[in-house]
Amino acid sequence: xxxxxxxxxxxxxxxxxxxxxxxxxxxxxxxxxxxxxxxxxxxxxxxxxxxxxxxxxxxxxxxxxxxxxxxxxxxxxxxxxxxxxxxxxxxxxxxxxxxxxxxxxxxxxxxxxxxxxxxxxxxxxxxxxxxxxxxxxxxxxxxxxxxxxxxxxxxxxxxxxxxxxxx
Length: 167
Hints:
- The chain is built from 6 helices and 7 strands, in the order E-H-H-H-H-E-E-E-H-E-H-E-E.
- By secondary structure, it is α+β, with helices and mostly antiparallel strands.
- It starts with a strand and ends in a 6-residue tail after the last strand.
């Protein structure tokens, strides 16, 4: 079982400062190799955004907590690059720690976050970009209904459209 919880300014500060209270604040064990490499450089940026705009909690990062072993463990991160734009578009990104990969967690993270985003009534499209050679991430997106909308030699861009934009 996987649970996602939104990053708050408080939890982001604990995470950024490597505060020993971080795990308690999110209700999970924090692996020694946290954060994922792709996320490490962005922690300060997202902390500042949340500190300055706490009303945007839920439009940035979410922690993915794996509860399948009975002991909650921080396994990955997912989120948006910010609130929806004027066209109802958000962009998502995600990462799973190596020891949790190939277990379906990324697909479940995407499923939960897209359901949440569409349920707000503010999102019409969710986009994601992957490296050309990141076939695992491409499969996760396709499995969750995303369609390829553009490609070049380095990046692929995918989009998921809300089934009924009037709901």
